[in-house]
Amino acid sequence: MIAWLKFLHITTLLVWCGGLLLLPLLLARADNPVRAGEAARMRIFAHFGYNFCVSPAAVLATIAGGSLIFARWVFEPWMFAKLALIGGLVVLHTYVGHCVARLGEEGYVRPAVPPALLLSAGLAIMTAILLVVLAKPHLDAALMPDWLQQPLNRQLLLPPAPSR
Ligand code: HEM
């Protein structure tokens, strides 16, 4: 079971991460098409790639990874460091999606963040995640603030009961 989850996790994250590296390259190229019709093909490719490959792969990688947390019971500081880095990847994923949507709807619009920076950020985050997950460094739990280390026994804020 764990082997299958890892297989699903790694195959889907290859598609996810590969797509997040490819799409900024495509965004960089989209303002400078060489042949007639190339710009339209790039827009369609980016749209289908993002919506039907990269995003579903991201969801499957997250489901498989989330299941692995419980299957392998890895509630360790390195895992929380990995999850924080994944937050960065999700921000990148969302921004790339925003650029792809604008490319499709408005024709080429130069992204506020240069594609080269998107590519470098993706590479940096992915390398950091791989280092953390493969080296599984021993991180001192004391690095976390106190409020994250113990239950605060506070009452949850519940919505008011509906009036009848
Ligand atoms: C989307 C959220 C993610 C979650 C919740 C998650 C969670 C996990 C968990 C729990 C494991 C098993 C760790 C173990 O067996 O000790 C794992 C394995 C792994 N993850 Fe993720 N992960 C996520 C995303 C990623 C990403 C984006 C990458 C790469 C850039 C990645 C790379 C790996 C690798 C290479 C392994 C295999 C490590 C090994 O077997 O030693 N994961 N992941």
List the helices and strands and how they pair.
Elements: H1 2-29, H2 38-72, H3 77-106, H4 115-135, H5 146-149
This protein binds protoporphyrin IX containing FE.
Pathway: Porphyrin-containing compound metabolism; protoporphyrin-IX biosynthesis; protoporphyrin-IX from protoporphyrinogen-IX: step 1/1
Subcellular location: Cell membrane
InterPro entries: HemJ-like
Structure write-up:
- The protein has helices at 2-29, 38-72, 77-106, 115-135, 146-149.
- With 164 residues, it is mostly helical.
- Helix 1 runs antiparallel to helix 2 (38-72) and helix 1 (2-29) runs parallel beside helix 3.
- It is built from five helices and no strands.
- The structure holds protoporphyrin IX containing FE (HEM).
- Protoporphyrin IX containing FE binds next to helix 1, helix 2, helix 3 and helix 4.
Low-confidence stretches: none
Helix proportion range: over 70%
Largest sheet: none
Tally of helical segments: 5
Radius of gyration using CA atoms only: 20 Å
Percent strand: under 5%
- Mean of all residue-level pLDDT scores: 90
The hetero molecules present are: protoporphyrin IX containing FE
> How many domains in all?
1
Order of helices and strands: HHHHH
Q: Please state the structural category.
A: mainly alpha
Give the overall shape, derived from the CA principal axes: globular
Distance between the termini: 49 Å
Topology, number of strands: 0
